Amino acid sequence: MKSAAAVVVCLLCLLGVAAAARDYVREEEMALNPVHVRLHNDDLGQTTWMAGESDFFQGKTLQEAKALMGTRLGGGANEGEAVRTFDHIDDGDIPDEFDARAQWPGLIHPIRNQEKCGSCWAFGAVESLGDRFAIATNASSPVLSPEDLVSCDELSLGCLGGFISMAWRYIESVGVVTERCFPYAAGEGNAPPCPPKGQCVSKSAEYKKYRTSDHYRLDTVEDIQKAIMTGGPVEGGFEVHQSFMHYKSGVYSREWWKFWDPELGGHAIKIIGWGNQNGTDYWLVANSWGTDWGLDGYFKIKKGVNECDIESSVYAGDPLLA
Ligand SMILES: *[C@@H]1O[C@H](CO)[C@@H](O)[C@H](O)[C@H]1NC(C)=O
Ligand SMILES: *[C@@H]1O[C@H](CO)[C@@H](O)[C@H](O)[C@H]1NC(C)=O
């Protein structure tokens, strides 16, 4: 699926706020660098993760890879958003390890692939929402439509990017339909038009909006954990550097690559748990780059140190049950 695995532009460039980073990124350079992979893996005593070359980024330039990082972080994106705390749960009741797939067997939806569209912000949102509906009802629940957000949420720029907070605002106020109702069609980088209100793109599907009763930001490591263990996966965002695209296994963190590891932009994902591997605390995360990338589509990233800002833009909402 090499052809279905590339990219376009990034919102940061559009907004012109990343001029310095943009100059630093040599855009025609290939996203994957076999020399980095070899040097990194030779240095394993010094690092907590293994690098590799995935089909997903094979043959893509850094410029193409940047277009996938369609999540706008920082710059006031979290301003004014309600923060949810879970003070009624004792910190001591947080388990050392948690994996939503083991906690709720059969209820966590599989890894998806955003392809060439900068729609990670939409995938992270509807994927955690779908899991949260399944968990709240203790029954399998349909795959939800990222295309609904990409094509219909007017506060976003579709394949050119979006805000995590705005995605959850849309989910609370409007809601999203199922994947069957409005299938993902933006994979080549162009979002189809929003269908008329009340109509599915595939006529045989049932029209139903999945909404939340609220949406909120999670501001501490403990509150992120408590939100996941009580309600299910949450959406998070972080800054992607070139090294991250080479992740294969272990616990990711920026290490010696930091000196020549350009920042590509914001990326949104679904956090499903946490744990400790060889003495390093990590978040367990579902990506939307297909199952060929990373640990069958998942990755682990250092927890508790706000690695690449992963703990700064975490959002969820409570499913509105009929
Ligand atoms: C959820 O459903 C499963 C399988 O149907 C059942 O075994 C389990 O007890 C249920 N859990 C709760 C909390 O109701
Ligand atoms: C963790 O430690 C074990 C035993 O020392 C080792 O075999 C394994 O490769 C380590 N894993 C990582 C990801 O470093």
What amount of the residues lies in strands? Answer: 15-25%
- Major sheet description: 7 strands, mixed
By secondary-structure content and strand pairing, the structural class works out as: alpha+beta
Give the name of the CATH superfamily.
Answer: Cysteine proteinases
The parts where pLDDT drops under 50 for at least 5 residues are: 1-23
Q: Which small-molecule species are bound to the chains here?
A: 2-acetamido-2-deoxy-beta-D-glucopyranose
Distance between the termini: 39 Å
What's the rounded overall pLDDT mean?
A: 90
Helix share, percent? 10-25%
Family: Belongs to the peptidase C1 family.
GO molecular function: cysteine-type peptidase activity
Organism: Chloropicon roscoffensis
GO biological process, one term: proteolysis
Describe the structure in your own words.
This protein is of the alpha+beta class. The protein has a single domain (30-316), classed as Cathepsin B, Chain A (Alpha-Beta Complex). It has ten helices and nine strands. Strands 1, 2, 4, 5, 6, 7 and 8 form a seven-stranded mixed β-sheet that branches. Strands 3-9 form a two-stranded antiparallel ribbon. It is globular, with a radius of gyration of 19 Å. The protein starts with 10 loop residues before the first helix and ends in a 6-residue tail after the last strand. The structure holds 2-acetamido-2-deoxy-beta-D-glucopyranose (2 copies). Residues 48, 250, 277-278 line the site of one 2-acetamido-2-deoxy-beta-D-glucopyranose.
